[in-house]
Amino acid sequence: MICPKCNQKTNHVTNTKFFDEFNYLERERECRTPNCFNKFITYEQISPGNKKIPKLKIPKVKKRKIEPRTQWQEFRFQYYASYLVGNVFDQLLILLKENNLEEKFDEQTLGILEIKNKDGEIYYKLEDDISGEIHEFQIRGLKSKIIRSILNDKEYWEKFKEIFKKDASEEDKTKENQQFLKSIVHPKTGIRSEKYDLEFFKKNPLIDYWSNKVGDKDFWQIWIKLH
Ligand SMILES: [Zn+2]
User: In whole angstroms, what is the distance from residue 199 CA to residue 208 CA?
Assistant: First the structure.
């Protein structure tokens, strides 16, 4: 088959689904042309000349029902991540301004070598590509400030109401206060679990913005060292 995007034949089948009820099959294909990698689907069915063909009905894919608990977990992780990333980069811009490094950063002669969470402090390491000079900065207490802000954020509790179809009680809020950090750092279900990948976080517009600005790969390198 010719790829509808790049018009080359260099694609291969990645999955085949057969629906015996309809004597019908679908092939998922992926283009191999560099810079294309288009994914498309082809169908195969008996030619309409054969009168025995049943009317084609493409089976509906069942939509996964997401439990409120899961929805809430996903929302709060994205929310936390966007707060963290937003604050870390906002602070970086402030530091650059204070140290008259803004221009160099904009001209990209000053690059980010590392941004990480070091003993609870956010540590920044930047390098001047021309002089080789290293600039290091540290910000204290950013994470606890972020958590406080989130738990006082009206929008956060509005989302709670939307998901659980009820206002958060004082008890809910107290519980959230006690468990927020624990649930984030939980080794199995916390924010580090594999399912929370870049694609997941990029559903949040602010993260999407910073990831595109810094570059997905570099952004991910920073992200995994932030929490
Ligand atoms: Zn292609």
Answer: 9
